[in-house]
Amino acid sequence: MKKIIHFIPILLLMFFSFTLMAEKFMVNSQTTFNNAHSNAAAGDSIVWAPGTFEDIEMDIEKSNLVIMAEESGETTFSGASQADISGSYITFQGFQYLDGNIGNDHVINTSGSYNHFTQLNIKDYTSYKYFIIRSECRYNRVTYCNFEHRVNTADQNILSILVDDNIPGYHKIQYCSFKNFDGNGNDEGVEPIRIGLSTQGEFISRSIVEFCYFTQCNGDGEIISNKARQNVFRYNTFEDNPVAELVLRHGDEGVVYGNFFLDGKGGVRVREGQHHVIFNNYFSGLTDRSIYLQNEDSDPLDDINIAFNTFINTAEIRLGGNGNDKPTNVVFSNNIFTNPMDDHFDNPTGTEDWFGNIRIGSLGISVTGGFSTVNPELELNSDGFYELSETSPAIDAAQSGYPSLPNFAEMNIDFPIIFDLSRQLRPLDTNLKDVGCSEFPHNSPVRPIATEDNTGPSYLWDIQAFFLRINLEGFGAVSLDLPLAQYPDGTEVTLTALPSENYFFTEWSGDINATINSTLIIMDGHKEVTAHFDDPTGLNNTQIKKESLAKVFPNPIDEEINLSFNLENQGLIEVELFDNSGKKVKTLLSQNFQKGNHSINQNVKNLPSGIYHLYFKKQTKGSNSIEVQVLKLIKP
Q1: Are 620 and 604 in contact (CB under 8 A)?
Q2: pLDDT category, 523, cuts 50, 70, 90?
Q3: Which of 18, 55, 86, 203 is 20 to 30 A from 8, alpha carbon to alpha carbon?
Q4: pTM greater than 0.90
């Protein structure tokens, strides 16, 4: 008999509900989809029935629609199927594109903005690109998608983000997996991700790739090809990529932190540009080079900051000394270097700055100062990764004075280095920080955040081993115990929550019938909870409400927000409005209501145009649980 787990006390029901009058169109063919799209209005949903469908072309020109599979992963498109999305505020989710052939076309092509693509699987397709985000787009998100094994190995990358010359795109690629692309590396052109073009190297992109997993990406020597400015690559895992690495090409100010580079050709190759930073990364088992600073005449390297990284049993760091365009103003600070495959460094320029580093093993170069030649005393944890032992000389040994890190608008970069790569807090005082990528004691163990088992669509995961991740990004407040509270950056709090269909699960741990206890870290508007459960079979018997708690009409909103809800018993209703950056705009309601149906009107005539999130919270009298719903609103 399956065990049922009881969780207390907060139920978060997310994301997104739209209008009171929204319609849902059920479709199962090209004709029914076209008819539904013609008749759909803002806030409506077009829902595909389960099955396999050939040669489906979805041309989505309207905005503010949800296009989704009725059952995530159960709707498969093949043949010459593809999607072209020119509308904005589109949610596109739950589909698989398998074994198709569209020749020189793209599987998914978007020129719209504020779109969210999630729970997609594209595999074994013959195409030009799998996914392209055009330069006119802004604020698109691609989450929990898998991109795998394109049949043709032509010179075209898999996910391409193009960049405008005037306005940054602010796109995000999150929790995605990129796997099994055939090839021999080199310049074959099948990069899993390319941001920008060689001609767009001076354009500011400000796109983020985070919490993604890359393995067996052999179609090109570049796993990620960065060809624009001010992009961030963080908390990703690059594992077993025999012929490829992350490459900073054209464009300045690339930011690489919190990543795991494991058992492959290399870690980071910096070919061109200035003001790049590489910090808080874990490099292990790399057979060719862990970092490669090139001597390149097209745009010589300058101001390269490499700090708080840990290098274990890897090939050398190449410093670019041979040639006429040597890297300049290169600083290595507060890194750990241990057990190199041969030497730690090769091909120095002789102008590098070194301080606060710890090493054991042959340097391979002549350096005066900047290193403590001492065993850093790393120990293997139960997950197979090295972290500081309690007697490590790296503890509280960091030195201040390294170059400052960038803080581009809306990018939420950990420029003060207040977290380690496991995102546990470091001391604010630099001289109290630990050398290397992790901070002792290890309340959060050193291990990759992104793995093959918790990235890509949840319907492809092994459900016998998974944990709950609740993404609250974009909100300045979250529901934490009682009542709704706001916390400053860097605050750690405890959250307890029930699972729901809108959460994503990735790894179990704990004891049978244990309560969910987890840490929430809030930093510059980015909030994420990783909660640990037990007994995955209990989820099958957990009853979760699936209906909406509240409805809003109209949406897009005009001069009023019309809110309706039903109470089965007397209860407290609290409603708050946040803008898209997570800033609280106003409290709309905080009042006790009797049981029954209720309709409330709130004047928002002077509300500026934009995207808003209405936070609806219900606490029934006599209950210690809270139900929360977040509704996405648009003010034209």
Answers
A1: no
A2: very low
A3: 18
A4: no
